[in-house]
Amino acid sequence: MKGYLWQATPSNDVHPAKLLHWESVAIDAVGNVIEFWGFKRNQGRVWALLYLRDVAHTAAEIEKELDLSKGGVSMLLRDLERWGVVLRVRTPGDSCWRYQAETDLLHMARRVIEEREFSFIARIRADLEEARKLAEADASTGKAQIQRLKRMETLADATEKALKLFLKTSRLDVGGMFDVFRG
Amino acid sequence: MKGYLWQATPSNDVHPAKLLHWESVAIDAVGNVIEFWGFKRNQGRVWALLYLRDVAHTAAEIEKELDLSKGGVSMLLRDLERWGVVLRVRTPGDSCWRYQAETDLLHMARRVIEEREFSFIARIRADLEEARKLAEADASTGKAQIQRLKRMETLADATEKALKLFLKTSRLDVGGMFDVFRG
DNA sequence: CATGCAGTTCAAAACGGCTTGAACTATATG
DNA sequence: CATATAGTTCAAGCCGTTTTGAACTGCATG
Known about the structure:
Two copies of one chain form a homodimer. Chain A is mainly alpha-helical. Chain A folds into two domains: 81 residues, Winged helix-like DNA-binding domain superfamily/Winged helix DNA-binding domain (Arc Repressor Mutant, subunit A, Orthogonal Bundle); 74 residues. Helix content of chain A is 66%, strand content 4%. The structure holds a DNA duplex.
């Protein structure tokens, strides 16, 4: 959840490798959702390219199609592979790796978010609790202020609860997508 | 939902106006949650200061307490006022405005997110739909690709559904907080 | 083992959002 | 009306994140 003022791929750009127009529209759309989920736009774009094409591509091909740098592609693929949404395969005769899309994105988004966000919220709650304890220890603190600190803790609680429900929901919602994304 | 590697207010900083240590811990914690919700960290900090102190402050005071710039405070207050979480009051005798916290933050967070996110998701869905239509119009598109484009639309659907539930939940969760945050 | 291409690394550049601060406008006061 | 102080605006600067590209490593092949 951040600022969402992305550029809308107004047209086939100047250096297009061979991406069809509709491909780039779809690929960028996926890039935007995934960015919304807190990942890099280009992680989503790489995955989307591989998923749409349904053919294992080499890093060099991805680089040309999406107009990214060699180093960038390498790092993006490493992330996607680590998260299990892209598979690195070596066709028997061929001497270099090819990459292909694997499983759906939300599956991985959930996992990553789960691990990332909860420690985040836990930290906030810990800070608020610490603040309250310090305030309580300080004789000059008014009763009402302690009240307000406690109420702020509810803010963290509510956020955590909401986040939990969010993840649980996306698990259920996506239940049907589990298979939907294969083939 | 973005990267959450914030600095933990390790100690009373160098130029503190007169913020107590526990105050700054709490204020920063609120800044962090609110940033998580997609707002500016300092919007949360300003609100938190006013809420914790429960006394109307002048812009100059806020500026000193939180070590912000004059211009920054002006803009932050404008946003908070627009969202209805901070009230601008003028005490009879006094010649300058004072600001005080009003209602809880989640109330406003929900409203703003609601309006912001849905147009965001709508846009993504529209792009995916457009891509699919273009692909369908192109004779060279394979059947399987159209399938995959449709499946990508489920990604937007699932995201939207999850978001809706998220907001609804936060509404329920916060139901009890509605009053909790007053006085 | 020399050559060349695939893949990795990382310092530096590019980018984007946030904040600053100086110039400006508005408003109160004598 | 002159002056002072509060509040606003916005171009420029700052800062964190992402991307680039050149140097490097590793591996396959002749």
